[in-house]
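Blinded run. Sample ID left blank on purpose so nobody reads anything into the name before looking at the predicted structure. Input follows.
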Amino acid sequence: MLSLANPAATRRALPWIAAIAVVLALLSLPGRAHAAPKKGDWLQTDSLSMLLVSRDFTTDKTSTVRKATNLSAVVGLHYYFVDRVRIGMGLQFTERLRPAPTHGASRFQRFALMPQIGWNFYDPFYTALIFSYAPRTQGRAITDMAVYAVLGASFKITRRMKFTVAAEVPYSFYDHHTLGLVALTGVSFRF
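Blinded prediction complete.
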């Protein structure tokens, strides 16, 4: 419980209170239907992402960004086949930043094809479901597959360009059974 008599607890709670206030303020804004993607629009996306934490249920181990840092770039092209709903394909390239890969592994950690469906449900928020087929993982020719649940927001920079932030939850199921949390940022161009 918050109390002015316990300033340490109050300081710990303030970031959470501020975050909740921001989310409520954003949700109270009216969705701008005129700014929403329309049927026939194309979207090109460029993003950078990083796996923050993952739990490997096959080996019963947890990994964080402190243990291994990989940076992923995803380039995608999407088509709105109805208003606010898109299908698309992304190409993912992942490189190991630190530590150096184990013997026999490359810094080029992952390549994946990522077909997806996305929905701009309330401007600026969107959600997506992504399937990932990766013929290269862990710096080797090891195949893996995953599904991703995505929740993000895109903020207008210009009439056709937006800045995007998102959280992704990937579940890998082919080589190992893992669950993770990914932070993503990037830009998108609508044409």
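Unblinding after everyone has recorded impressions. The longest helix spans residues 7-28.
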